[in-house]
Design goal:
Order of helices and strands: HHHHHHEEEEEHEEEEEEEHEEE
CATH topology: Glucose Permease (Domain IIA)
CATH superfamily: Glucose Permease (Domain IIA)
CATH class: Mainly Beta
Strand content: 15-25%
Largest sheet: 7 strands, antiparallel
Structural class: alpha+beta
Length: 330
């Protein structure tokens, strides 16, 4: 393997970020390093209702019994109650719900605008695996690309796709807690698992949520289960409603984050309170910025991100890493 010029000191400092003893909540001084508000956030951020009466009425109809299309009204996650940070769905803003998922009857262009304002924009980041390791790579289905040509409405790709043969185990990218399991019948995401990661578990100054979709079968891990970094959380497949062509076997991998520890699960989505999308490549950055607008503005020589990984034998490279790629690497 080609040894890249990353010193041991840099690697250890990058992936084992020390947190204060009372790191249950991020330091407020880190706010701008976490999410530098883009100008358009003034239009969308933290709004509890719609912008005008018609929009508010349309959204409210979809959040109650109006899931439509014969889809059953989702049941809230009873097993989530009592887990750290869990709050009732009513505490999550409509904008965050539009950010994470699809609700019938809502203007798709408005939803995309909110998703972009909350981090769903291209950054140009590229994963560079430590020690030149051979890792499964993201294919053409990259972060935040325009998906409108693949849908009959405006859309962006809210994650990255990493192809692998069907049945390949998928690994937890950090230690965490299972907070979401969804069959997603009639949904393009297919079988899905979501993990919640505390700042202590990742070394990052906020709470993060990793999403794994198109799984072969539902994970046996229970809601509330604590998983170690590198634990198997599912296997690769292509489940989910398909469009005009058959989807290849691949993991759809996404990251959300928030300064708030609070989150909810309404039976359809895991929604971090005041959450944002993050380029999954940015999840592995050793230091800020992490928000998409600031990342997009970085010079070209800062777009490559050193990514830690698990070896087939279970070893972590570098050993102190708290965040790894979702597949083992050679």
């Amino acid at each position: 393997m080609v040894v890249r010029a990353y010193s041991l000191i840099l690697l250890l400092s990058a992936y084992a970020v020390p947190l204060a003893a009372n790191a249950g909540a991020p330091d407020e001084s880190l706010h701008h390093a976490i999410q530098a508000p883009a100008p358009q956030l003034a239009q969308f951020g933290n709004r509890k209702g719609g912008g005008n009466g018609e929009r508010k009425k349309k959204r409210r109809g979809d959040m109650g019994s109006g899931f439509g299309g014969g889809m059953a009204v989702p049941e809230p996650c009873v097993r989530c109650e009592g887990l750290d940070g869990f709050v009732p769905g009513g505490e999550i803003s409509e904008d965050v719900r539009l950010m994470v998922g699809k609700m019938k009857g809502v203007d798709k262009a408005e939803a995309v605008a909110i998703q972009k304002a909350r981090g769903g924009t291209e950054t140009g980041l590229v994963a560079e695996f430590i020690d030149g390791a051979a890792c499964p790579e993201i294919d053409s289905e990259q972060w935040a690309i325009d998906y409108s040509a693949k849908r009959p409405w405006p859309a962006i790709h809210k994650g990255v796709d990493i192809p692998q043969p069907r049945g390949t185990p998928i690994r937890a990218v950090a230690a965490g807690t299972v907070v979401g399991k969804f069959m997603n019948e009639g949904n393009r995401k297919g079988i899905e698992v979501m993990l919640r990661h505390t700042p202590q578990q990742t070394g990052l100054p906020f709470w993060t949520y990793s999403q794994y979709t198109h799984l072969e079968a539902m994970s046996p891990l229970a809601i509330g289960a604590e998983v170690m970094i590198g634990a198997e959380i599912g296997r690769t497949s292509n489940t989910g409603k398909m469009g005009r062509r058959v989807r290849r076997d691949a993991l759809h991998f996404a990251i959300l984050y928030s300064q708030s520890p609070d989150w909810s699960n309404d039976g359809l989505f895991v929604t971090p309170k005041d959450g944002y999308w993050m380029d999954p490549n940015a999840f592995y950055r050793p230091s800020p910025p992490y928000d998409s607008q600031a990342l997009a503005a970085l010079p070209a020589d800062q777009k490559r991100v050193p990514v830690a990984f698990m070896k087939p034998d279970g070893g972590i490279i570098p050993p102190a890493a708290k965040r790894i790629w979702p597949y083992p690497c050679e």
